[in-house]
Amino acid sequence: MTQWTPSLVEERLAEAAFVLKRLPEPRRQGYFSVWPEVIHSFADKVGQEPKPMRVIPSPAAISRMEETLSWTVGLDPIDGKIVWLRAYGERWKAICWTVGLQRSAAHEHWLYALCMIAFRLNGRRLNRTLSKRKVIELAGASQR
User: Which Pfam family, any one, appears in the UniProt record (predicted)?
Assistant: First the structure.
């Protein structure tokens, strides 16, 4: 069993976001086409852009992603939103516009949320009266 740290939590959330991006689009049930598939000749394909290749994630990656989806349930809604936006690789400027916080405050919310997830995964309970900065200091996440 591994000891969870905020950086490990961040990596797992980023992996989950990457897996979510690679999943195939959901299809509606009951809709189909009776038209035959069009077979293009070489002359038709000249000048066309190739279709992007989709690599479907492995079942183990999907299982880890499903486990990771429940980690932000106990967090404040703003903290959860910041964590997932950051996991998707969103820039801090866009995150600050979305949640309405300054850069330093948004970064503190993000670090606090990662620390809370790490503490919860390690089975530790924290006093609810602790400040965000004290929780971050306890986790040692501010050395990054």
Answer: DUF6362
